[in-house]
Amino acid sequence: MTATADKGRPLPLWYTLPEGFRPVELSADPEERLEAHYTALAELCPDATTGQLVASALGFEAALGRLVEDGLVHFSSFVLRTDDDLLLTGICQISVTDRPAGDPHLYPHSALRAHPDQPDTHKGVVELPSGLAAVVVADQAVTVPGALFGVEGESTSAVRTATFHLAFPRIPQAVVVSLSTEVFEAEEEFLELATLVAAGISFTAPKPDPVPKSAPVAASPFG
């Protein structure tokens, strides 16, 4: 998959995702995406009222629009079953942000300094196929507006996030890969999954698959 920056300018960014991920098409017509989200919610929550479903779909679309304005290039949910028969669910986001000009190898360290040291937060620098990356794993309480579920008030959820920061090699921008889950019991599997997604980031176009020698050679009728 490729990513596109604002104003339609293509970015030198490619990424691959494992099975179990369900991307939201950010370039789709908002009304069609809204209708699809409403339908999915109706199937998932058959007891919800029409008003709750509409409010939830509208809230999701509004939140998604704000994320896109802030540089979001990919959004997906994931559902995987672990070897211990746990259902690992969560959200994956890939965003592009500006970074200070300079050596891209120094960016991970500056990204770490921007994250304050807090309890239940672990930070470090790891080497990925696309280069050095800052990684921050944090547990935090997230306030969820009731409007996202078509109800009044707010609720609080405990969420674990794993965020990777990688600098583009030749432009003053960076890619941020963030996975989040509420399934704390699958800590090891979640961190492995987040690392796998971050390792799928590439700043060079994938090479086309070689043509098997036994395959017929394509020829143009125009010589």
Task: Classify the fold: give the CATH topology of one domain.
Answer: Jelly Rolls
Order of helices and strands: EEEHHEEHEEEEH
Low-confidence segments, given as residue ranges, are 216-223
The count of helical stretches stands at 4
Within the largest sheet, what's the order of strands? Answer: 3-4-5-9-8-7-6
Can you give the mean pLDDT?
82
Share of helical residues: 10-25%
Describe the largest sheet: 7 strands, antiparallel
| CATH architecture label of one domain | Sandwich
CATH C-level of one domain: Mainly Beta
Q: Based on helices, strands and strand pairing, what is the structural class? A: alpha+beta
Principal-axis shape equals globular
**Secondary structure tally: strands:** 9
The radius of gyration is 20 Å
Q: Separation of termini?
A: 33 Å
Q: In percent terms, what proportion of residues is strand? A: 35-45%
Protein name: GAF domain-containing protein
Organism: Streptomyces canus
What does this structure look like?
It comes from Streptomyces canus. This is GAF domain-containing protein. This protein is α+β, with helices and mostly antiparallel strands. The chain has a domain of 152 residues: Jelly Rolls. Strands 3-4-5-9-8-7-6 form a seven-stranded antiparallel beta sheet, sandwiched between helices. Helix 1 crosses helix 2. The radius of gyration is 20 Å and the shape is globular.
Characteristics:
alpha+beta, 7-stranded antiparallel beta sheet, two-stranded antiparallel sheet
